[in-house]
């Protein structure tokens, strides 16, 4: 592995600046389904903004979401954009999240970025990436 292909792990802090949720299916039984548009402001090792479209299933005994997020700004001083697809499942107090940088989604100085993403803590994105 050459020096330009090192894997980096960072914790990127963000604030939610907009949150717009719309219920599109709420049956008498089973989880309700919603669409959510979230705007984020990143600061620190990622300096920029994210726009996320989320689909959720929210029930009494469990919940889940899938999301696509475009991040625009600088990552460790490199300017560009990339897209993360991520999601999560909750059953009782057990929660699992998962995420991946979409292959080929990097632009500008972030062209070629790849890796994994996880939002295990509120308002912190853990990104393990290679560039």
How would you describe this structure to a colleague?
The protein is an all-beta fold and 131 residues long. It has one domain: Beta Barrel (AOC barrel-like). The protein is 0% helix and 72% strand. It contains no helices and eight strands. The chain has strands at residues 7-25, 32-43, 46-58, 63-75, 78-91, 94-101, 114-121, 124-130. The chain has an eight-stranded antiparallel beta sheet with strand order 6-5-4-3-2-1-8-7, with no helix packed on it. β4 and β5 (78-91) form a beta hairpin. The chain is elongated, with a radius of gyration of 16 Å. The relative contact order is 0.21. The model has no long low-confidence stretch (mean pLDDT 93).
Short description:
This protein is mostly beta strands.
Fraction of residues in β-strands: over 45%
Mean pLDDT: 93
CATH superfamily: SO1590-like
Numbering strands along the chain, what is their spatial order in the largest sheet?
6-5-4-3-2-1-8-7
Radius of gyration: 16 Å
Describe the secondary structure blueprint for this structure.
Layout: E1 7-25, E2 32-43, E3 46-58, E4 63-75, E5 78-91, E6 94-101, E7 114-121, E8 124-130
Antiparallel strand pairs: 1-2, 1-8, 2-3, 3-4, 4-5, 5-6, 7-8
Which features characterize this protein?
131 residues; mainly beta; eight-stranded antiparallel β-sheet; elongated; AOC barrel-like
């Amino acid at each position: 592995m050459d020096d330009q292909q090192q894997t980096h792990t960072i914790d990127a802090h963000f604030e939610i600046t907009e949150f717009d949720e719309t219920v599109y299916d709420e049956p008498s039984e089973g989880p309700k389904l919603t669409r959510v548009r979230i705007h984020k402001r990143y600061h620190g090792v990622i300096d920029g903004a994210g726009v996320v479209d989320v689909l959720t299933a929210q029930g009494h005994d469990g919940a889940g979401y899938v999301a696509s997020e475009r991040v625009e700004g600088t990552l460790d001083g490199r300017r560009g954009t990339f897209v993360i697809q991520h999601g999560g499942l909750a059953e009782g107090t057990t929660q699992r999240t998962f995420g991946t940088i979409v292959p080929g989604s990097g632009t500008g100085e972030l062209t070629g970025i790849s890796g994994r993403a996880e939002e295990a803590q509120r308002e912190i994105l853990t990104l393990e990436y290679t560039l």
